[in-house]
Amino acid sequence: MKKIAVLTSGGDAPGMNAAIRAVVRTAIFHGVEVIGVRRGYDGLMDGDFMPMDAASVSDIIQRGGTVLKTSRSVRFKTQEGILAAKQKVKDAGIEGMVLIGGDGTFKGAKEFSELSGVHSMGVPGTIDNDLFGTDFTIGYDTAINTVIEAVDKIRDTASSHHRLFFVEVMGRDTGFIALNCGIAAGAEDILIPESKTNIDEVVKRIDAGIKRNKSSFIIIVAEGDVPGGAYEIAKQVTEKCSYFESRVTVIGHMQRGGNPSASDRILASRLGVAATEGLLNGRKNEMAGLINNQIVFTPFSQTRKHLVDINEGLLNMAHMLGS
Ligand code: F6P
What we know:
single chain; 4-stranded parallel beta sheet
């Protein structure tokens, strides 16, 4: 291969820039040209390309977001969109791609490779940690640290006022962020989509805490929890337990921002190198991941989030420790 492209797609995640840097510098080390694609798949269809050299990725390892920008492309889901991208890729002489993103990114890549014959390798970049084939995704560590910093602050005001707080965190339809932030912040309860939420049980746990004179309650609610987000849960809980004043905090997109943690920078560097060298060595349509500190490659077709299981033992542990 003489020329490859790199792009970021889907929701941005802290550490994506470290991954871009690793891809660019690895390719250049191996004598391969790199094209940066701006705005993810939208930029691929529009030919929004820029040549990247070693200097173009200086001073970005520590920055959140993605210098290449990103998109959630609707157009790329159509055959017309994929054919437009195929033409732009052919015109630019791009022979392979490294894609940094999540489940939707890899699904698009598989279809693109079937229709265009141009193959890709993936790097897992999402704060949700919801991909099969890696212990952690890039951005997750930073995001959970951002959340616990916020929850620690909420705890100060919650205990000063004797209040019950429902704190909603991201994760789309999975509860990895909620579960581990709940454990790390010492939350009294954690509500996640992978485990059926029973409002009476939540109330029972609050009652037990009141009996032992707890001065505040933090309930972490994953945005995808089935009865609804934090506002809906708060409504249902407070209908049955009104003796504690309650408030709702939705942490929102601040979870996606900020300088990446050391772990995310290291993970992004290792996986960026692995995906790029994999591509140059003839691998195709696989995501590079890290399991038990070893690089592993998983076909795009198997990285889908529903294959990932939440650790139920951790939820039980969190209930025991938060009671
Ligand atoms: O996938 C990352 C994520 O932040 C999810 O946790 C969240 O549900 C979603 O993206 C929000 O997407 P958007 O930024 O498009 O609103």
